[in-house]
Design a protein that fits this description.
- The chain is mostly helical.
- The chain has one domain.
- It is elongated.
- The N terminus is likely disordered.
């Protein structure tokens, strides 16, 4: 793919691109836009590669934009989830 075709594959609806054009957009609004973008991807799409492409296309030029932070947060792998309480934890059960 070249140029706009490659960009369209990463952001087919132009949601991320448009969020950078909205003046005064908040981080909360960016998270909402990001969720809509993520839901628009197909099962065959490589989400991590798309995120890296979006960061290269937009976040590098506007590192302080709220969407840049949302994209970087999405790219970071979350820590391994751990159980945070409940009856079993209080009673000292371990599986």
């Amino acid at each position: 793919m070249v140029g706009t075709d490659m960009q369209a594959a990463k952001d087919p609806k132009g949601l991320i691109r448009e969020s950078y054009a909205i003046e005064g957009i908040t981080e909360s609004e960016c998270r909402s836009v990001f969720l809509d973008w993520a839901l628009s991807l197909g099962p065959q799409d490589d989400v991590m590669a798309a995120l890296r492409g979006l960061i290269a296309a937009h976040a590098v030029a506007a590192p302080d934009h709220p969407m840049s932070g949302v994209l970087r947060d999405a790219l970071a792998h979350p820590a391994t989830p751990m159980r945070r309480g409940g009856r079993r934890a209080r009673l000292g059960y371990t599986d």
